[in-house]
Amino acid sequence: MKIYVDMDDVLTETARELSRLAAALFDIHVPYEKIFAFDLKQSFHLTDEEYLHLMRGAHWKGALEGLPETPGAREGVAQLLKQGHEVVIVTGRPLQTANVSQGWLRQHGFPELPFYCLDKYGRWSGGDSADPRLLTREAFEQTRFDLFIDDSPLALDLLQNRSDSRILVFDRPWNRDYPLTSSMRRVFGWDEVVAAANAATTE
């Protein structure tokens, strides 16, 4: 199977770090489990200016390099590859973060994987259009995946029309009220991701 894997909060513990960053920058204390909305401006009760400041801090090279790995992610990806699946990283991060993002994957022992930046949320534009790591919406729609793994409600909205594919919703506080479609299944960790991928190949 060809498997799409998101990066933030699927491979990395990004929201936990953003919670700490908001506390450091603005003295705003919202624990990870209280992040009720994917829109951090809403969850952290930020002004527009504060939100932009938070995002600049979050996309700083040192911040991205220091993100912890989601438990079991490296081992889970290795298992998927061992079982013959094709794993493709599709992140909503801006293209400008591609080098540091791929560096993080190498630093954490992930194998070299196809890596793409897709504007899933309509939040960024620009970048080198000739960079092969830039995946446009049009190209994405034409790319076949058998299985998707993502956590963001906005990304899940984007994937809903892929009725011929399976979608694994990686459980996070901000997606627990998301209405799952018949093609979606909630998973609570990488062991469940691997098990669900194996089950899909035998059906």
What does this structure look like?
This protein is of the alpha/beta class and 203 residues long. The chain has two domains: 2-12 and 70-202, HAD superfamily/HAD-like (Rossmann fold), CATH 3.40.50.1000; 14-65. Helix content is 38%, strand content 14%. It contains nine helices and seven strands. The protein has a seven-stranded parallel beta sheet, sandwiched between helices. α1 packs across α3 and α5 packs parallel to α9. The longest helix has 13 residues, at 14-26. The protein is globular, with a radius of gyration of 16 Å. The protein starts with a strand and ends with a helix.
CATH superfamily of the largest domain: HAD superfamily/HAD-like
Task: Give the neighbour order of strands across the main sheet.
Answer: 4-3-2-1-5-6-7
Give me the Rg, rounded.
16 Å
Overall form: globular
* Structure class: alpha/beta
* Oligomer state of the chains in this structure: single chain
Number of domains: 2
Helical stretch count? 9
Any descriptors?
203 residues; Rossmann fold; 2 domains; seven-stranded parallel β-sheet; 9 helices
Secondary structure blueprint with pairings:
Blueprint: E1 2-5, H1 14-26, H2 40-43, H3 48-58, H4 61-65, H5 73-82, E2 86-91, H6 98-107, E3 115-118, E4 134-135, H7 137-141, E5 147-150, H8 153-159, E6 166-170, E7 184-187, H9 190-202
Parallel strand pairs: 1-2, 1-5, 2-3, 3-4, 5-6, 6-7
Helix pairs in contact: 1-3, 5-9
